[in-house]
Amino acid sequence: MTHKIIIDTDPGIDDAMAIFFAFQSPEIEVLGLTTVYGNIPVSMSARNALTLCDIAGRQDVPVTKGVALPWVGPESEYAHFVHGDDGFGNIDYPPSTREVDPRSSAEFIVEMARKYPGEITLVAIGPLGNIALALRLEPELPKLVKGISIMGGAAFVPGNVTPVAEANIWNDAYAADIVFSADWEVKMFGLDVTLFAPTDPAFVDILAEKNPVMGGFMQKAAQFYIDFYSQNRDEKVCFFHDAFPIAHLVKPELFEFTRGNIRISTDELNRGQTVVAPVGTTASPLWTEAQFVQAATGVKHEELFQLFIDTYAR
Ligand code: RIB
Ligand code: CA
Fold first, then answer.
1. Boundaries of each Inosine/uridine-preferring nucleoside hydrolase domain copy (predicted)?
2. Which of 80, 241, 248, 301 is catalytic?
3. What is the pLDDT of residues 92-112, one digit of tens each?
């Protein structure tokens, strides 16, 4: 089965690995890369997405520029300390000479959903402002798409930005509340699975060997990111969070989910917390009357990383 997808992204090192994985997957048709601020400012996200398309020889894929600011609050504190000043590990890769598509990310999402009703899976691997805005532009969006999968959240484990919040949700908690409350069941691939599948840094060396172009780029760009994740650890390690929702489309049998009601915290202390009550675990209407979510809580990560390697090798 071929999955039509739109990847909403803030590329970023793990975004890059995920986007190349999608381009390499015969089961996936990427209709567009819609960019958002998050790891880096949105202008850099857009430029980096164009670069990824150039590297992959996919200049046919539209790249749009989206929201630059959170739904509420000041400009984000970007994650250059994780992804580098350029979002690609400071490897000074020459920027693309192409221009972004004139449509905004939210407009593109709505236009494609109307063009392909019931066929598109939205895959959001950055903060959720574009998805929230698309919902405001087209309130029927949940009925027009096949589904939505995100990398984000931390259902039953600590956060990675605060003790309770994961970066994509923390970066735009109000937008996330709009998205999770909409009339769809989000598939949430959070830290519950992505932080429990650490990658040995040799993984990017294997990607480079299997695919000198895209894997070779990842091998270079990921070194800064690996150094960040390896601080205060005895061994080097890396986490390619963003590829998980895409891998699920290719091999759903690698994942297990817990279904529950979800609430998003927007107060200062708990901003970005994704509080999931598994079905039947509470009688509080604060949860029983909230929208359902499918939170990924298990992954066969050996098979998952073999899938990444085999797909890069194609
Ligand atoms: O918490 C990890 C997420 O935040 C990933 O999407 C990474 O790219 C950053 O955006
Ligand atoms: Ca990301």
1. 5-305
2. 241
3. 999 999 999 999 999 999 999
